Amino acid sequence: MRIHNHDVADDVITAVMAAMKGDFTAGELNKVAMDAGAPEMVYVVMFGRHEHFAHRVVDRLLQKERKAGRIKFSKNKQLWKLVDQSKKGTVECPKS
Predict the structure, then answer these.
(1) Is 57:16 a contact under the CB 8 Å cutoff?
(2) How many CB atoms lie within 10 A of CB 51?
(3) What's the total number of domains in the chain?
(4) Is residue 93 in a domain?
(5) pLDDT in tens, 6-32
(6) 95: closest CA among 69, 77, 71?
(7) What is the largest CA-CA distance in the chain?
(8) How many Å apart are CA 57 and CA 42, to the nearest integer?
(9) Residues 6+ apart with CB under 8 A from 6
(10) Of 43, 47, 45, 19, which is closest to residue 31 (Cα–Cα)?
């Protein structure tokens, strides 16, 4: 995976994916990504400024897993939740 023209190490991706268990927040995953070696910020020449990197890694992985139906966002608790894999092909939406 490439973000802001930088490669994301496989160790970082593996660590973040492994941390997606039970209820979790994006902030918790961001800390996991940084602990696994993703820098918090990188300089992006095209923009001429520093941009968040670890946060972007987590965001991309959350989007990928959400689109695949493996996680969902609980608006009531502001948490991501792992979807029951026995209900493949269905994604439960939180009640308003």
Answers:
(1) yes
(2) 15
(3) 1
(4) no
(5) 899 999 999 999 999 888 999 999 999
(6) 77
(7) 47
(8) 12
(9) 42, 53
(10) 19
**pTM here?**
0.77
37 token code pair? 């070696």
Beta bridge pairs of residue 82: 71
Per residue in 51-88, pLDDT (tens digit) is 889 999 999 999 999 999 999 988 776 788 877 655 54
Residue 95 lies in a domain: no
DSSP β-bridge partners for residue 52 = 41
Residue 61 structural domain: 2-87
**23 lies in some domain:** yes
Token pair of 23 as six digits: 């209820």
Please give the structure tokens belonging to residue 78.
């502001």
